[in-house]
Amino acid sequence: MAEGKTESPGPKKRGPYISSITSRSVNLMIRGVVLFFIGVFLALVLNLLQIQRNVTLFPPDVIASIFSSAWWVPPCCGTASAVIGLLYPCIDRHLGEPHKFKREWSSVMRCVAVFVGINHASAKVDFDNNIQLSLTLAALSIGLWWTFDRSRSGFGLGVGIAFLATLVTQLLVYNGVYQYTSPDFLYVRSWLPCIFFAGGITMGNIGRQLAMKSTDIWGH
Question: What DSSP state is assigned to residue 188?
Fold first, then answer.
């Protein structure tokens, strides 16, 4: 009587739930890295514009880094960009309101171009006073939201980002990390929240587009 052969157990296969979690984690990590480097690049370019126009002043001992920018600015902006870019699609998903307005890369690139233009205007365009400049940049920032976003969640997150980023900047300037020339809103310029608002909308659009494309690839 032939004895039954016992098959040696092969490698255990991961269940569908574990595979789903792993795919989602890899998806988030890739998007976070991409958003981080986009934020670093934009920080280097935009901060260079501000320094060239003497809007921001760093101590002499921190000017020697790349693009005449303090070394900690790009990593901080990159980290903030990654958080914002991942937060926007997450909020959309939890609210059950997937953002589908102008969901193509050409629209995202135009949004980035408008944001760079707004930042450039804050450093280059001369107004009679800061109030006129602040109102103009506020109108341009809201126009950017209306043109490329139009979601309530996007507007609310943009306002929250502008408030928190301005508060952090006030604390940094207060502690002498760097300074603004001619501050008119406590320790910073009054138009700074407009720049942060526009930046939040821009990184949110990039994050949403990356999330949509990664969903097409990964299915999560």
Answer: B
Amino acid letter, residue 145: W
Residue with tokens 């001619």: 182
* 3-class SS of residue 21: helix
SS (H, E, C) 50-105: HHHCCCEECCHHHCCCHHHCCCCHHHHHHHHHHHHHHHHHHHHHHHCCCCCCCCCH
Q: Residue 133 — pLDDT band, cuts 50, 70, 90?
A: confident
> Could you tell me what percentage of the chain is helix, strand and coil, using 3-state DSSP and rounding each to the nearest 5?
70, 5, 25
Q: Is 124 helix (H, G, I), strand (E, B) or coil?
A: helix
Least confident of 103-117, 172-186, 198-212: 172-186
Q: Phi first, then psi: what are they for 180, rounded to 5°?
A: -105, 140
Indicate yes or no: pTM above 0.85: no
Tokens 């494309």 belong to residue:
213
Taking the alpha carbons at both ends of the chain, their separation in whole angstroms is 52
Tell the residue number behind the tokens 């135009």, with chain if given.
110
Neighbour-count burial of 82, counting CB atoms closer than 10 A to its CB (0-12 exposed, 13-18 middle, 19+ buried): buried
